[in-house]
Request: fold
Amino acid sequence: MTATATAPRRARNTRSGIRRGEALAGWTFVLPVILILGVFLLIPVAMALWVSVSDWSGRGSPFSSNVGFVGLQNYAAVTTGDGLATRDFGTAMRNNTWYVLLVVPLQTALSLFLAVLVNGAILRGRGFFRTAFYFPSVTASVAITVLFIFLFSTTGVVNEILGAIGINGPNWLADPRGLLHILVGSVGITDGPAALTGSDFLGLSWWNWLAGPSVAMTVFIIMAIFTTSGTFMLLFLAALQNISPEVQEAAMVDGANAWQRFWRVTLPQLKPALFTVLTLGLIGCWQVFDQIYTGTKGQPAKTTLTPAYLSYDASFLDQDWGQGAAIAFILFAIIVVLTLFQRWALRDRPVSARRARQYALPTRPATASPATVAATQVPSPPDPAQKPAADRGEGKETRP
Amino acid sequence: MTRKTRAIAGAGALAVAGALILSGCGGSSFDEPADGGGDGELTSSDEAITLLIGTSGDAETDAVTEAVAAWSEESGIEAEVKVATDLPQELSQGFAAGDPPDLFYLAPEALAGYAGNGSLQPYGDLLENKDDFYPSLVENFTFEDEFYCAPKDFSTLGLVINKGLWDAAGLTDDDIPTTWDELTTVAQTLTKDGVVGLGFGWEWQRIGTFMAQAGGGLVADGEAIANSQENVDALTYIQDRMADGTFAYAQDVGAGWGGEAFGKQLTAMTIEGNWITGAMTNDYPDVEYVVTELPEGPAGKGTLQFTNCLGMAADSGNQEAALGLAEYLTSTEQQLAFSQAFGVMPSIQSAAEQWTSDNPDLAAFLAGADYAQGIPTYDGTADVITDFNSALQGLKTGDPQEILDSVQSNLEAIVN
Reply:
């Protein structure tokens, strides 16, 4: 590493000797931030990584001589054992997977919808609505959790309202039944087929993996959507305001209706914002902790247990610090992998042949000059920076 | 490329520097424990000591602060009371940093974890008044044959009856249930107009009383006995009563715990400890109630006890003083003062008589001390019980044998 690092530096130094002092000054300026990030971020993460492969039991320094290296033993304990630790981890993964599956798409859709709504020029009192929708995001999550516990208590507001329209509301935060189990239970299936109950993953049978979020978890799902959609609305709003009105006008001239303009013109241009929102949503959802800590501590029947809370529980309450750290790093790996997958799924790709045909001129000359070939060629892939130009180009091509 | 490699080099240098800083600050405190950690002599110095408490409220904080100040005056050693907002977390941080409080509240289910990693200094046998503690409490704080710490007070569970609803149902003092059959009958009589006969929390910490009365429990003589026939009988009894609607979980009637369901008169009876008196006085002053011992099951009387001890840190610099403070706080006089201030029961037998005459209405709670079971003190017990509790939440439709078999396998893993 040293060799590769020094060689180019020397080369540059000879090239611009007059700027010799700049590197030192630069490092001096960024030193405070590097120190702060190092002490509060880098070193703790490195320490946690070490703890996850050590047998540190929580007393004294994890670097002291009587703490031993145990390899992947802590990781194995939560993923491959047949004991309580593995089953708890499996349960936590099940709960959080359902949480992510529901919260991420719903909060993205809702925040986009709200952003489009408050971006519209026709809406009166836009400022008021923007503030109102953003308000839950600036409130402390502990406060919101307490509020939701009251709203969703057996005799709370939600059940009162449901009662008024003749629905007997569930005992929300004390109901461990999975939504999908309730659904199939309503058609008389209460026990899973042997194929699902017979085999398991992480100590939990597939039938239980497919239970869906419990009624109690649904409360947290609703809460997450409620609190985060404001923040993400803001991101979408900023992106929407960046779209030049000419593009919309051009689409209108082309005869696109509002629905088509949204899906074909607006949404593709929001892709960078969409990626940000999905990534932030994904990370936030996998790390859900404070709501659980304040609200239910994993109850009822462990259906609101999440890996982040389990990590805390294993470390601080059970003194299994290695396992707690291992869970944290498994969570880290999951988030990284899913984010990479999402990057891949949302990557800029060449337009498909089917899509290209839609843009083609109705009558194509039999012998094409190089100029017409260029003109009929598919527009360049939707690159955010060049978007307006590309779209204008499209408009020109399809015009008769 | 250049920028990247330089950034990596910088980060590496930073990590090294950081590690040096960390180990530097570690040198002063992390590596110290060796001189005090052994199980022989207690450390002694003129250092001030700290007591970390997880308090039940201002009444407890004030009473403890006052007592510690009085001890300080007497002994000439400075002592400070700190109130933890999250006791397990603050304790863990203290042990990890090598700078724990000298004395602290410690729950029996946390004992094994801390004793196992050497954070605790066992001092039970050094206590002057060690024979005065209830034997079941001593057992609750004994880990691997060593009596670790002085129980600071304790509670047991009793049957709490709503006097108004009881009288309205035409029941008299003679009807107070002493057996499961009688309990079934009165619960049936009391179940009407939307009120459930008996309500309690959905956890082993309440349901375990039935297991004890049936002659079961979690661990006996170092063997896990969770799936014994006695325990199955106890859960089946509760399940049957839930099916006919005379028993219910407090959570199922929309309350957070048994005391709340009882105070709101959603249930006519509940199984709770002596802390319920505080809740009743503060939140439901209009509800009249009486406390009796829990009814006998097939195997006689049974209840559960809950307690905390005054744990001592192995890394404490002044264990002699901490021992003195622990003795002072568990003296007959102090124990009675505490029970008057915040309603706990004294952990020492010499205070029992005075306590009973001071609190005749609550005598049933203290009577439970003779036959109460405590939480097993194996490493990992808390997890097993949490898992048991989550299964108990589905007891209504679950299979008692299946639930207990799962508890048994979890328990066997930690007991052996």
Q: What stands out?
A: Chain B touches chain A through 53 residues (CB under 8 Å). The first helix of chain B runs from residue 2 to 29. The domain at 156-305+376-415 of chain B is CATH 3.40.190.10 (D-Maltodextrin-Binding Protein; domain 2). The radius of gyration of chain B is 24 Å.
